[in-house]
Fold these 2 entries.
Entry 1:
Amino acid sequence: MEEKSAAIDIEIKLFLEAIYLKSGYDFREYAPESVKRRILRRLAFSGFENISAMQHRVLNDNHFLELLLQDFSINVTQMFRDASFYKALRKSVLPVLKEKPFIKIWHAGCSTGEEVYSMAILLKEKDLYENSRIYATDSNIDVIHKAKKGIYSLDRIKEYTAGYQRAGGKGSFADYYTASYDMAIMNNNLKKNIIFSDHNLVTDFSFGEMDLIMCRNVMIYFSMELQNKVISLFLTSLKKGGFLCLGAKETIAFSSYSEYFENFMKKEKIFMKK
Ligand SMILES: C[S@@+](CC[C@H](N)C(=O)[O-])C[C@H]1O[C@@H](n2cnc3c(N)ncnc32)[C@H](O)[C@@H]1O
């Protein structure tokens, strides 16, 4: 029994190596129990005899690889995640964007949309919403459907309200949603200038002429090579003087394109295209 479990652990290591070499997605340092659970679930669904057989399929069938990446897709998100970052957006980035006749924002890897609605609220409060268009994308179509609906559990709204206030919100957060049973439905006037669509940063094309790109907590599991590819995509998608916002644990410092950006707010991981 123990021997079998040790063999499975070795197969999993090889499997993760195969995914990394094939796609650049790096789950090798990912919590072992969580990885094991996801891989064994996919194994049970797909009917392969063992992980090695499934590995052969991953290496030879891109569609199957996509399925696996979705299994690993971590969609954890929240509104006003890292309140100090949103405070910085409010205080230092939006005033720069205010000078523009029209503002284009891209949320790449927006998950279930909480980040997008947080941005919409900031834009509303700075009187910028009517002059803005927000593109919200993710490679996982299921989360995009949820994002479009903008329905969240009331349980979490308490936490989001605190985040909104910590991020400098002075109004009433309750004005932005309607409560129905145990859910909160984000208002339509926040949704009307948001376009939700599926888009894969690794395989799809760039979006043009953006003033601000948010790609937070998406590239953490990307190899350096993959990060480079995505950062180059952002570089071509941004206007000169446009902003790129990454997650707290992410940076462009080691990428081949870092010289094309300046640190606008280093601690908050806000970069500006030179
Ligand atoms: C942890 S969530 C981050 C959500 C949000 N940006 C935040 O910071 O709260 C990461 C999201 O990135 C998406 N993602 C992963 N790889 C992607 C890719 N290649 N293209 C687009 N989205 C991707 C996942 O589906 C997931 O929804």
Entry 2:
Amino acid sequence: MTNLVPARVAYATGPRDERAAATEVAAARRTRDVPDLATFDVILVNSSGGKDSQAMLDVVAVAASAARVLHRVVVQHNDLRRVEWPGTRDLARRQAEHYGLRFEVRRRSGPDLLEDIRQRGKFPDAARRWCTSDHKRGPGRTLITALVHELRLDRPARVLQCFGFRAEESPGRAGRAELSYDQGASTQTTRHVWTWLPIHSWTVDEVWARIHATGVPYHPAYDLGMSRLSCSFCVLASKRDLLTACRARPDLAYEYAAVEAEIGHSFRKDLRMAQLIEEAGM
Ligand code: SF4
């Protein structure tokens, strides 16, 4: 395992030293290797319960076990309530338990995503993904705060947050670095947060091969034909996935259509939920 995060960088200069941070990032890009997990106080795995999270969790668990820091790994699931596929939270829990890992659920206080859409009078879109920032990233930050507080360190905690993002998912994700310093999640005095994308370069076939090799259960929505999980009706999903979701979750589809009609704003610029329902033959 290559040490990409030498202690000199981690503690003497601190990640706010731009040159040190750039050195770490450049090293990760060059080697496509595992960062030195032993230099992090908390390794936080963000699990949607979907296939990419599941494969990524296996990679992180194996690497953390090899580095003898499996006890520092915490799996977090952001509960999206009615808009996520039924059973997702419990599945994410079982996947974490398979590796003997601590499991934490966070959810946004206040309205769930669909009610939030109704109150705002508009759906999110690719350019305005407040759904992710408000309903996923925001609640996730509260867990980082709590975990760092538990440690009671007399120095800033080093936190490595792991995501199952893959380059082939979108141009936006392709442009992300495998290891980067998260300025927005970090503070000067309490925590220095890094983001690691362990399966960034993987293909979907590699993801499924890894899942099948582990024997850990995956969400049954994939066997219905879904290519992605998370929100059943994601504004960024393919039409094929949306039609599959309509047939699998007709009640929720009608709830989306009712909100769409009430606010007079289309689910997607090019696609109304009412049209999807009709095309799904419901
Ligand atoms: S899955 Fe789609 S709709 Fe749901 S939070 Fe993510 S981007 Fe937004």
